[in-house]
Amino acid sequence: MTNPVLVEVLRGAVVESGHRGAVSVFDADGKPVWELGDTARPVFPRSAVKAIQALPLVESGAADAYGFGDRELALACASHSGQPAHAELADAMLAKAGLDRTALECGAHWPMDHDATVALARTGGVPNPLHNNCSGKHAGFLCTCVHTGIAHRGYVKAGHAFQELVRDAMQAVTGAAHDVDHCGTDGCSIPTYAVPLKNFALGFARMATGAGFEPVRAKAAKRLFSACMAEPFLVAGTGRADVALMQAAPGRIFVKTGAEGVYCAAVPELGLGIALKCDDGAGRAAEAMTAAVLAKLLRADEALAAKLIEQANPAIESRIGAKVGSLRPTAALS
Amino acid sequence: MTNPVLVEVLRGAVVESGHRGAVSVFDADGKPVWELGDTARPVFPRSAVKAIQALPLVESGAADAYGFGDRELALACASHSGQPAHAELADAMLAKAGLDRTALECGAHWPMDHDATVALARTGGVPNPLHNNCSGKHAGFLCTCVHTGIAHRGYVKAGHAFQELVRDAMQAVTGAAHDVDHCGTDGCSIPTYAVPLKNFALGFARMATGAGFEPVRAKAAKRLFSACMAEPFLVAGTGRADVALMQAAPGRIFVKTGAEGVYCAAVPELGLGIALKCDDGAGRAAEAMTAAVLAKLLRADEALAAKLIEQANPAIESRIGAKVGSLRPTAALS
Prior knowledge:
Number of domains of chain A: 1
Helix content of chain A: 40-55%
Structural class of chain A: alpha+beta
Number of strands of chain A: 12
Oligomer: homodimer
Order of helices and strands of chain A: EEEEHHHHHHHHEEEHHHHEEEHHEE
Shape of chain A: globular
Largest interface: A-B, 53 and 54 residues
């Protein structure tokens, strides 16, 4: 099936581009609440499932052993912008386990945040693995390995004992088999498994409610969600959509972006999980789709819905800062 | 109508994302040679038509008066990467007309080339309008104004005498009315008009052949095309697709990218013009589509076609440089 156009890009009065996608909203009992497009198609969740991938960090007792609070747990679930606060905290997490940045196998890249890149260059610096947007997740992985006695070398590889722990958590939470035929490699070198989009919606409803989880998992999921909602800057960075969306209603909205236009989200008070993917992989469209879906689900709170609708319609500016267009969710999302 | 998927994005063995689009190939007599998708839909050409927008620079005699050769004319048609050679040449062009960067109304942004941004930051620099990817086009605009006695202030605005000159050229070359209802503002503040995609294919066939043009225009078009094909680095920059495509067959392929997934191109030896747009605006997909279309049109030259097919299937790498996926044109393009 052909997914519907969910976001249009306007320049002046003309639709310049359009983004198709699929959206799935589930409750924790496995009931689909809202489905748009083909939600059965296998999708790589990429970084959108970092909160699930962080479950072993909490469940193993590693987080407690190293004294991790909201800040560290938020960073473990982050695709951060590589700003100094992010890189320094990832470094501090590694130090708690007696490691340093040389243990990270995620690779290095310049900070996602442009000002951070300029500042790093100004001081003659070069990026190291701590600036990688996934360094907090990897620091959490390494801390878990050290705490549980798993030899950490090669921890990014499919089949490594630690990645099998992560895969077990992913399968249990989403209810979908993660098989080798649907395995790809993420930008930070860990395996990512394509499963039906709707399974991520179900998984995030479970994460938000704990429904169907053993008490240890339910508590760990709640703790990770609370941490991200308390420290959204550490989950993303300056000017990022995830920060704006979680700050729109502190403690009431969880969102997490993934590469190639994926979002996973949850509204704990409604017991709902959300997963969406923009067909073409565009982050700008996935952000607008997520804001529009949240506005619809939370429409009973009119002030909040208005704020979210504004975030679903971001302006496009010229190089002198004049508004020349905007993104606009289509009727399918309203 | 729904445009076909023209490029898929693979990660491992799984299709992660897909890009739809439309392609139009015309000869200079107005005969469609190959059409895919909805080529009648109005599309903003953005920067893909800079060679047409540079016609007044040559036709007015300004280029000759200021002694502009291939390098300056290539930069006038460029969306350059803001590397030192680009910024310095734009500055030199302005100086020929007695102007400097303060006359540019395009706005400033950090160089598109990441290494150039880092180098600028390292020396404590900040971007100025010369680093704007459109500064060469704007320098050409300003030189034309000064040479022809048009007061240049406000030269970016729709309705300004200079923009009317550009609009006249655009209408004559494409054969499509450029009306106010389909006018948007480009990132560099000049007007851009949405007209049917197929009219750009026709226009670029005419630019490549001079068919139907007065001798002055035919000569100017040929000179601009020759300049771009002789100096592809100045049209784009290090590592850019436009450079690779034009260098694949020096003097035989003209290509120019535009924002939001547009490409205009021509194969002078075949007398053909090409215009395409990726529906969702993705540059990565538009590049692959352009390479695939050129490979098909030039398939008689097997070595060249093989090189172009390679460019149509670029690798996707992880942060440690491992190949984890690739783009792949679909059967519709082969």
